[in-house]
Amino acid sequence: MKIGIDVDGVLLDFEKGMLVQAELYDMDIASGKGKIHSKPYFVQNKYDWTDKEKEDFIKKNLGKVSEESCLMAGVKEILPRLQNQGHELIIISARGTGNEEMIDIVTKKFDEAGVKFNKCFWKIKNKVEICKQENIDIMIDDSPTICENMIENEIKTIYFRGIRGYNLPENPKLIELNNWGEVYRFISKTNLYGVNPQILEYVGKNIFPKYENDNGAHGISHIKQVIDRSFELMLKNDLKLNRDMVYVIAAYHDIGHQRDAKTHEKISAQIFIEDENMKKWFTEEERKTIKEAIEDHRASSDHEPRSTYGKLVSTADRTIISIDEYIKRTYLYGLKNYPELSRDERVARVYKHLIKKYGENGYAKMYFQDDKLIEALQEIRKELKDQVKFENKTRKIIENM
Known about the structure:
Radius of gyration: 25 Å
Strand content: 5-15%
Mean pLDDT: 86
Number of domains: 4
Structural class: mainly alpha
CATH superfamily of the largest domain: HAD superfamily/HAD-like
Order of helices and strands: EHHHEHEHEHEEHHHHHHHHHHH
Number of helices: 17
């Protein structure tokens, strides 16, 4: 599951400090009338202050309160647990807008606590746009306005309601939680894929880290995309399959790439079948089916997958998130496996490979209806019609990698 996370009021206990400083500022510098507006989310809007006073308050206190604030209770313990379950944690925050130092302050706190994230998006004004761009499954935010905006855009949201938040109307896509213990329980029980939590934890701890040394072509990002697409296609095509098996096939399918790209499907299958831990969760017959599905997933295979499981992961593996991303992946694959080629030869190889795989008569097969892939194929085939233009585009992309 991809989890978007706000910072202030969710990861950092920032709000209490701001409220204390607001009271002091009102008494010592501003009107002294106290809070006169109850609903505004931003603390400076709760007082009868002039615009100049609001600006002065923010200038004096943002950095000071950030430095003094601690991580929310449970963050240091629970975030690694969620990552061990296979979830991606992605910061999506407005922090840093107008003051880059605010980012440095909080990243230092994360580093000192050993808290890590898969991606970080700072200075974000439109969080919905990032959530859609990153295919976020659920967003955690303490701003009622942002939560309302999320659910209006069909994005499932945890309203991490803090001391500044107000009540929001009930909505199927909204759940109100107040601490990280509740978040951990909810996400663990929700289990987007319906997979055995023990398998999620084992794969998260022992299998996913093995993809981290990949140069990007078949790394953890690709594996999680294939997992997501496997379940998406399974549901869309109403396939009555064992969810644990689907998850494990997708999780293991490229693990042999770092040993030998040309026979990676056989190596990946062997790594799975030799994993004694898998015997806890699968029968011998199920393990045989998983092994065969991993062996059969390769697009250039000379035979059709032997089971529905193999056909599913093979179709999911054809995922093209974007043409630019696929160009990057193909170039990185060539960089690793064909080091003798010059840069121009690698660029030419990208074009030739994509023509061979995804051109009009390409070998990549689709065993289930996949509207996203059909749309992506139409787009990539249109661009492949002009080789010079395509290769120039490839050069620009790799220059910015």
